[in-house]
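Entry type: protein chain
Record version: 2
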Amino acid sequence: IRSSVGGLHYIDASFSYTSRTGSPQRIQPYKEVLDLYNNYFSPANLAGKAAVNSRQKGITNLVMEDYRNVVNSRRIASSDRHKIDNYMTLLAEAEQRLGITTGSCSGGKPDPEVKDASILHKSTIDLEVAALACGMTKIVSHMIMQNTAEIISNEGESHSSAHNGKSDSGESGRASVDQWVLNKYTMARVADFIKKLDSIQESNGTLLDNTFFYYGNIEATGRHTFTDMPVIVAGAGAKIRNGYYIDYRPRPLVGDADIPWGRPINSLLVTILQSFGLTPAEYEKFGRKGFGVNDQYAANRGPHYAPFLGARVNDPLPFLYKG
């Protein structure tokens, strides 16, 4: 699912691409929450999915009590305990691949007359989480094109605040607003998404445990480069360490006058893919090593980034990645 609700001005600025035609093409996002609802949660589609879910009960749930009794017994060898643990993990993974979850697949129809962007995003997130929970999709891309309660996209203010620390009143005619105020509004939507994912219980944890959540801000500090883009990751607890602020910039700091260089965003991308169990052979495309465009840095940055985009291009980020 790809959504950009209310993002009318930048509706073509999709971050999702397909290469089925032989060249990269943008995949259009949903700009109306009702379109998303009708495609995934129309009464006919929802009724059919509910009928399937009513016949499903997680296999791991059925044997969980016996599993706990066995693995906690002193009479079982550590090697056998490890085998049983692997078996349960495989069962849980198989259930996930088959779309068998214990999450709710209901999705209430959103109000078409919503005038508050906060409610609009809440309705969209509810639908997206429901679709993930019942296996209707495995990927969600949610663009936040508002930083106030107004429905209309106001990315111009966000853009100017990233450059100047305050929004430009000349762009909208409204009073200038500090960047932190706009960011706080956006991050409240991010927090809502994470909480919703964590509220859905599945056979082997919550939906958040089984999801890699990634947030990035394209404005950064106004330069729109991968040298200063803030990133938040959550979920994927089995593979990713959560709850830390990690700074990968070397000490002493090196780089431009006001933006020290660290690790390329490509290192995070391969970390995400490897947390899904993918190998380089499975995600490397078009003759490129690693993942994503990795040759757009300025010439003076070459010596710094060369190791991470050369021999170590598929190295996951240390500490963050448990392996």
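Comment: Residues 179-199 form the longest helix (21 residues).
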